Amino acid sequence: MSTDKPPVAGPKLPPYGPSITLAQAKRVAEAALAPAHANGWTMVIAIVDPGGYLVYLEKMDQTQVGSIAIAESKARSAAIFKRPTQTFQERLASGGDGLLVLRLKDAIPVEGGLPIIVDGKLIGALGVSGGSSAEDEVCADAGAAALS
Question: pLDDT, tens digit, for every residue of 26-36?
Fold first, then answer.
């Protein structure tokens, strides 16, 4: 079946850059934890390299243990798909073709996972878990901005 309309273009995604260093990952985690400390939230911060492999993880005291795996999964998803996990959440919520997100291996459709972009290149990603999705996203935003 032929159509005269071209397919809808996908989003412009950043190129991969050099991998995040341990020192950079610690700065990202410190910035991400600042809103948690200020608001009395307990969080886990996971930072991964561009391939989605763990570089740094920090769990605040009394954070639920289940948040460790969730934070890592959010970070991995943001790295390997080069986009915020909130993008998948929004697509899923739209229904219809958006439900295809459920079939994407390692796509986590929950706020709190963001790519870390430096000089226009993705050097890693972070995932935050422990609070509500909105609280996780506040912390992730703070962390992702730490190296800009």
Answer: 999 999 999 99
